[in-house]
Design a protein that fits this description.
- The protein is α/β, with parallel strands linked by helices and about 240 residues long.
- The protein has a single domain, classed as Rossmann fold (3-Layer(aba) Sandwich).
- Helices cover about 40% and strands about 15% of the residues.
- The strands form four sheets. Strands 1-8 form a two-stranded parallel sheet.
- α5 crosses α9.
- The longest helix is centred in the first third of the chain and has 16 residues.
- It is globular.
- The N and C termini lie far apart (about 45 Å).
């Protein structure tokens, strides 16, 4: 199991399985951070291939979403949109966003193993590119009250200390939003379920969690969001 974070993002924005990987970290690197995660995983990929060669099967997913996602990233947007009202959305609504539902990813990985299907595969949906606006707008069906998205600016996010889930800070609006090609995975049988199937399943799971579990999400607080919305309105 790998990740699309293995790629050298300075060589983007389009990534196939043959695209260059991130340079190896220093040999004494042990702490996993946002900066070291990709290079460490890239080194794992290289070592697997050094040992197994053409016998290796390597899967590189993007953001994994769906029920029981303990990162709470996609879940934030599902829950927040379902609550309705004015919503602080990421800057640059035209930026691309990719994901894969765990309910699609895991059965496909098992199938690869059972068929002894070797190769390297990006696993990043949906099948056609989708922007943040195109991803968020359908989620409004989850809400019984009106929804209005207010697209933030990087400056306001920095000023309010808000880290919006699933947002790639360093690439926003740069024209370098990465796209991970999953054609090879699709040819082996991977499919991507509709967004609303993932959203409904995620929301049902989230609402069944205890209050204590939901409090551990680490999401932007309503107070932070309101502060940012007021700053946006004043511009």
């Amino acid at each position: 199991m790998s990740t699309v974070a293995v790629y050298d993002f300075s060589r983007g924005p389009y990534f196939k399985e043959t695209s260059p990987l991130a340079p190896a970290p220093q040999p004494d690197t042990e702490e996993v951070t946002g900066k070291t995660y990709g290079p460490l995983k890239a080194e794992c990929d290289r070592r697997v291939q050094a040992v197994l060669g053409q016998r290796a099967t390597i899967v590189r997913p993007t953001y994994i979403v769906g029920p029981a996602d303990d990162s709470d990233r996609f879940t934030y947007w599902v829950d927040r949109v379902a609550r309705g009202g004015e919503i602080l959305a990421p800057p640059y609504p035209a930026d691309e966003i990719q994901w894969i539902d765990v309910q699609d990813l895991c059965p496909w990985i098992i199938d690869l193993a059972e068929r002894d299907q070797v190769g390297i595969y990006n696993a990043a949906g949906p099948a056609k590119p989708v922007s943040w606006q195109q991803m968020l707008q359908p989620l409004t069906k989850l809400s019984s009250t009106p929804v209005q998205f207010r697209w933030a600016t990087p400056e306001i996010l920095k000023q309010t200390g808000i880290a919006l889930p699933l947002v790639r800070d360093g690439l926003l609006g740069s024209g370098q939003t990465p796209h991970f090609d999953s054609a090879a995975a699709l040819r082996t049988g991977l499919h991507f379920r509709p967004l609303m199937d993932s959203a409904n399943a995620t929301l049902s799971w989230w609402r069944a969690q205890t209050a204590e579990r939901r409090a551990q999400s680490g999401w932007p607080t309503p107070e932070q969001e309101q502060q940012a919305l007021k700053l946006l309105a004043a511009r």
